[in-house]
Amino acid sequence: MDEITPAAPVTLIYDEMYTSEGAARHHYQNIARQLFSLPLDALAQKQREAEMLFRRLGITFAVYGEAAGAERLIPFDIVPRVFGSKEWARLEQGLKQRVTALNAFLHDIYHEQNIIKAGVIPAHQILDNKLYCKEMQGVDLPNQIYAHIAGIDLVRVTENDFYVLEDNLRTPSGVSYMLENRRTMMRLFPDLFAGHSVAPVEHYPQMLYDTLRESASPYISDPVIVVMTPGAYNSAYFEHAFLASQMGVELVEGKDLFVHDDKVYMHTTEGPQQVHVIYRRVDDDFLDPTVFNPNSALGVPGLMKAYRAGNVTLANAVGTGVADDKSTYLYVPAMIEFYLGEKPILSNVPTWRLELKDDLSYVLAHLPELVVKEVQGSGGYGMLVGPTSTPKEIADYRDRILADPSNFIAQPTLALSTCPTLVEAGIAPRHVDLRPFVLSGKEIRLAPGGLTRVALAEGSLIVNSSQGGGTKDTWVLED
Question: What's the distance, CA 191 to chain centroid?
Answer without folding.
Answer: 31
